[in-house]
Amino acid sequence: MSTLTKPNHIGRKISRIRELKDMKQEALAQALGTNQQAISAMENSETIDEEKLVEIAKALGVSVEAIKNFSEEAVFNYFNSFSDNSINQGPIGAHNICHFHPLDKLMEAVEENKKLYERLLQAEKDKNEYLEKLLEKK
Fold first, then answer.
1. The domain containing residue 107 runs over which residues?
2. Based on the domain organization, do 107 and 75 belong to the same domain?
3. 13 and 62: one domain?
4. Lowest mean pLDDT among 79-83, 100-104, 127-131
5. What angle separates helix 25-32 from helix 50-60, to the nearest 10 degrees?
6. pLDDT by residue (tens digit) across 18-45?
7. 12 close to 43: Cβ distance less than 8 angstroms
8. Within-domain flag for 92
9. Is residue 49 part of a domain?
10. pTM beyond cutoff 0.85
């Protein structure tokens, strides 16, 4: 009987969660303060004691319950449940939907630049006035 058909094979569940998180056995081993061989043996174990499971869950960034209740079907159902309610029903990125007018944003940026330029110009004028006053005192 393969580990895929055993619904309570905790080691296999840990392995799949680790793989879904794009984590290598070495990375998990380092997080747990052990070696890759120990992780491999653990992932082949059908059961793991509760204390160790808590450490593993913390290292994987999931809850103990998430490990215990993990199933491939639930993962696929989760990702398949996303739907796009906008008009963009084609391939990803096929349509760009703007909720603002791009020219309006451009004009806002131009106005902001004008304000910044005016502030810079005023600061230069103030600096020149200050320097002229210093020169007059000499």
1. 99-138
2. no
3. yes
4. 79-83
5. 120
6. 988 888 999 999 989 999 999 999 999 8
7. yes
8. no
9. yes
10. no
Q: What is the mean pLDDT of the chain?
A: 82
pLDDT band at 103 (very low <50, low <70, confident <90, very high): confident
Q: Is 91 inside any structural domain?
A: no
Number of domains the chain contains = 2
**CATH number of the domain that 56 lies in?**
1.10.260.40
| Same-domain check for residues 130 and 68 | no
Query: Given this model, what pLDDT does residue 72 score?
Result: 75
Note the residue count of the chain: 138
Q: Looking at residue 51, what DSSP letter applies?
A: H
DSSP assignment of 58-125 equals: HHHTS-HHHHHT--HHHHHHHHHT----SS--SSTTSS---SS-HHHHHHHHHHHHHHHHHHHHHHHH
Residue entry with tokens 């502030």: 119
Nearest alpha-carbon partner for 7 in 72, 65, 58: 72
Clarify whether residues 9 and 44 are in a common domain: yes
